[in-house]
Design brief:
Layout: H1 3-11, H2 18-29, H3 35-48, H4 52-63, E1 79-83, H5 91-101, E2 106-110, H6 120-124, H7 136-146, E3 148-152, H8 159-170, H9 177-189, E4 195-202, H10 211-227, E5 231-238, E6 246-247, H11 249-260, H12 266-282, H13 289-301, H14 304-315, H15 321-324, E7 334-339, E8 344-349, H16 351-361, E9 377-380, E10 387-388, E11 393-399, H17 402-415, E12 416-419, E13 429-433
Parallel strand pairs: 1-4, 2-3, 4-5
Antiparallel strand pairs: 5-13, 6-9, 7-11, 8-10, 8-12, 9-11
Length: about 425
């Protein structure tokens, strides 16, 4: 078998066999096929697409290119969650403790933020001494003890995906359904949880800008998960405006803590409740979502979910005092109020543009080597469909660079669109894919 023949076959629009996909993934991972030939193959895949079978073969080949994490020694049905990325999405920090407090093992290997989207690991590292690098034994033992572990992926999980993604990024081949779905699902399936919920974001702050794109991606990923023998459900959710009110690492941790105390933003808590209910059903903890929601609400009202976050931080060597006193989290030296110059209803808040404002403040990374300012970010005081008076505060900018903060303030005034009331309210949960 030679790469030239595989290239030619895909160039001509023909499907690749499992052996051919395994060959090019294995040989490329080992450095035996040069970048320029795989770049050509990626472009052929981008143009001619892959069928469902090819996509599954590609996912399997990427999983098999490295280590997998065996979770058989964890008691019970293990559940995992993945978001396709958004702005202000601190869901994992709330959902994980809620689900774990209901007696279901929540296992998650997370990533870091890049561009305008945040990463769970960066948020957790706002907590002093919190350790995201865990051995597999520690990951398993923690989950058996307290029903929850959230850590970073090891370097040896899906190395083929890392190499392919780096090439896709510089060859304009990122935006292909099969390549996106196999990239996401290979990382999820390499961690051998029993059930996965996928939060597929759609809108201005999401990778998928239209409902049709998001629905196709959701179907593709659910299909891969089920074909791989995992219980998989996708929820398509709205990312036309940021989720919750806080954007920025320590600010989102603070908001997550408040939400676990029952004081969080309605949209953020609603999403956690919907995702959590589905996970409890997938884990066979309850028979239906109504019963699941009652359990999840009780985890908040009783303080069990809040205490579970404290346990998570303790077991991963973090400073638990910041959970009881969030003012101990990293704080910016300046807070700038952005006041409305108009009176009316908030018609829209472009989530991607707000995310880019947070990025400009240092809350995100331009590249994986960029240094984060864990204290920087934005807190929204007004959201879509709310009324604002002239001179009333729209947002609070948290920054350590006053000049950058003032620049961002001007940008935010342009991002907030104010006028007549919208016809109909924004829908947070758009679709469910089984």
């Amino acid at each position: 078998m030679v790469i030239y023949d595989i290239l030619k076959k895909k160039r001509d629009g023909l499907p690749l066999s499992e052996d051919e996909i395994n060959y090019f993934i294995n040989e490329y991972t080992m450095g035996k096929i040069p970048d320029y030939q795989i770049s050509a193959l990626l472009m052929a895949i981008f143009i001619n697409k892959m069928n469902d079978q090819e996509t599954l073969y590609l996912t399997k080949a990427m999983i098999n290119s490295g280590e997998t994490v065996n979770l058989d020694n964890i008691d019970g049905i293990k559940v995992d969650k993945h978001s396709t990325g958004g702005v202000g999405d601190s869901t994992t920090l709330i959902l994980g403790p809620m689900v774990a407090a209901c007696g279901v093992p929540f296992v998650k290997m997370s990533g870091r933020g890049l561009g305008h989207t945040g990463g769970t690991l960066d948020k957790l590292e706002s907590i002093k001494n919190f350790r995201v690098n865990l051995s597999t034994d520690k990951f398993v033992n923690n989950t058996n003890d307290i029903n929850i572990s959230i850590c970073s992926q090891t370097a040896n999980i899906t190395p083929a995906d890392k190499k392919l993604y780096a090439l896709r990024d510089v060859t304009a081949t990122v935006d292909n359904l099969s390549l996106i779905a196999s990239s996401i699902m290979s990382k999820k399936l390499a961690i051998k949880s029993d059930a996965i919920i996928l939060d597929v974001k759609v809108g201005s702050g999401a990778f998928m800008k239209t409902y049709d794109e998001a629905k196709k991606l959701a179907h593709e990923m659910v299909k891969i998960g089920k074909n791989y023998g995992r219980e998989t459900v996708a929820i398509v959710t709205n990312m036309d405006q940021p989720l919750g009110n806080a954007i920025g690492n320590s600010l989102e941790v603070k908001e997550a803590i408040e939400t676990l105390k029952g004081n969080g933003p309605k949209d953020l808590f609603q999403l956690c409740l919907v995702l959590g209910a589905k996970l409890l059903v997938l884990a066979k903890r309850v028979k239906n979502e109504q019963e699941a929601e009652r359990l999840l609400l009780n985890s908040i009202e009783s303080g069990k979910a809040y205490n579970k976050l404290i346990e998570l931080v303790k077991y991963q060597d973090g400073d638990t005092s910041v959970i009881d006193n969030p003012d101990l989290l990293p704080k910016a030296s300046h807070i700038i109020e952005v006041k409305s110059k108009n009176k009316g209803y908030i018609k829209s808040i472009n989530a991607e543009e707000i995310g880019r404002c947070a990025l400009a403040l240092g809350a995100g990374r331009e590249t994986m080597d960029s240094e984060l300012d864990l204290s920087a970010g934005i807190v929204l005081n007004k959201k879509v469909d709310e009324f604002v008076e002239e001179g009333e505060t729209l947002t609070y900018i948290h920054t350590n660079d006053i000049n950058k903060g003032k620049e961002v303030a001007e940008m935010i005034l342009d991002i907030y669109k104010i006028g007549e009331k919208n016809h109909g309210s924004q829908q947070l949960i758009i679709d469910e894919i089984h």
